[in-house]
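Quick question, first post here. What does this chain look like in 3D?
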Amino acid sequence: MTIHYKTPRSPYDRIGGLYYLGRTIDKIRLKQSNELRPDFYALMGDGYDARIMGYLELDYAKFAQFVLTGASDEDCWAYCGEHGRKMNVLTTLIWNDFASKRGWLDSVSGLLEKFKSASGLAERKDIQTFFEYWEVDEGRKP
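> Answer (accepted):
Ran it through. Tokens below.
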């Protein structure tokens, strides 16, 4: 029997206007159903997941518990507003700009290069951010 693992949605997909939140939600759901590609397990609740939870002032474990109640994306966004930071146009802009440019000439540029090398993408100079890396690594972009 062949297992067909899945990857989470694109980090560019928005929930409540925010990049990446849907990706965190997908990883939680896919892990629960044993469909998540195994290489995602190590950083669940860490990395970007931890950053968005920190930015939203939410506890990852509690958020994950809520997601696993069968909550829709809209329910998850409502949870964020009820239990975390109140978002507005400026705070959304700040998160989206930070998140989408992470890896581009910043403190984690070296880490991005390690991920690219491990995936056989070291020569891809067009991949300058983690978002761009995930789009290629997960097959949404050539």
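Strands lie at 14-15, 18-19.
The chain has a mean pLDDT of 96.
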